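Support request from a user on the community tier.

User writes: "When I paste my structure tokens into the form, the page sometimes reloads and wipes my input. The last time it worked, I copied everything first. Here is what I submitted, just in case something in the input itself triggers the reload:"
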């Protein structure tokens, strides 16, 4: 009996290890495809992982993040129907994240990003509609995780855009970008697949800000 119990325990641990290994391998491969700018392939793989990992919001996040990137690419062409297609997909995965984790801060981040692109696309049409929601999301993110450099940078980017549109002093915003850079030096994401990007963007934004 002891041997049977040992065998079943070992088998269970082996199955769990293999399952985790498949997740890690899939996520690593999807990240690699993304870095190679193969957005469709990366998104498709993240979607398959999300379908298998129903209690894990991270693959849903990356599907949504890639949709936001593709939304930006469509924004440059000013094709509103294509922008909407990517925005709808991003919002779908924001909703998926919230189904898994109701108050997930990265869902707020994604939503703020996609709404920002609508404002950038047509400020007259979407500025009043979405600005309040964007500001609210960033404020809640910053309050919940005041030392998260990703959130600090995102909010500073939004604030800088608003300052450029409405006018105003940007010194405090530049300071926030510098703070984000400093915080990236010690930022430790929860796992290897949690969002950790933004340092390069923060350095570029701060360099541009410092020239003004």
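"...and here is what came back when it finally went through:"
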């Amino acid at each position: 009996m002891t041997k049977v119990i040992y065998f079943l325990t070992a088998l269970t641990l082996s199955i769990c290890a293999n399952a985790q290994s498949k997740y890690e391998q899939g996520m690593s491969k999807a990240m690699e495809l993304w870095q190679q700018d193969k957005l469709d392939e990366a998104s498709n793989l993240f979607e398959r992982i999300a379908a298998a990992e129903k209690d894990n919001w991270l693959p849903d996040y990356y599907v949504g993040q890639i949709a936001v990137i593709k939304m930006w690419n469509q924004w440059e062409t000013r094709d509103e129907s294509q922008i909407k297609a990517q925005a709808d997909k991003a919002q779908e995965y924001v909703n998926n994240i919230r189904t898994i984790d109701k108050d997930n801060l990265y869902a707020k981040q994604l939503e703020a990003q996609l709404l920002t692109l609508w404002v950038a696309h047509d400020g007259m049409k979407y500025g009043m509609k979405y600005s309040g929601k964007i500001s609210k999301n960033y404020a809640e993110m910053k309050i919940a995780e005041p030392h998260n450099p990703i959130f600090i940078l995102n909010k500073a980017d939004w604030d800088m855009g608003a300052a450029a549109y409405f006018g105003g002093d940007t010194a405090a915003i530049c300071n926030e970008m510098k703070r984000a850079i400093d915080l990236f030096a010690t930022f430790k994401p929860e796992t290897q697949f949690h969002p950790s990007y933004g340092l390069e963007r923060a350095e570029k934004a701060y360099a541009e800000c410092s020239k003004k």
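Agent notes: The reload is a front-end session timeout and is unrelated to the input. Residues 156 and 172 are 9 Å apart (CA to CA). Residues 1-19 have pLDDT under 50 and may be disordered. Escalated to web team.
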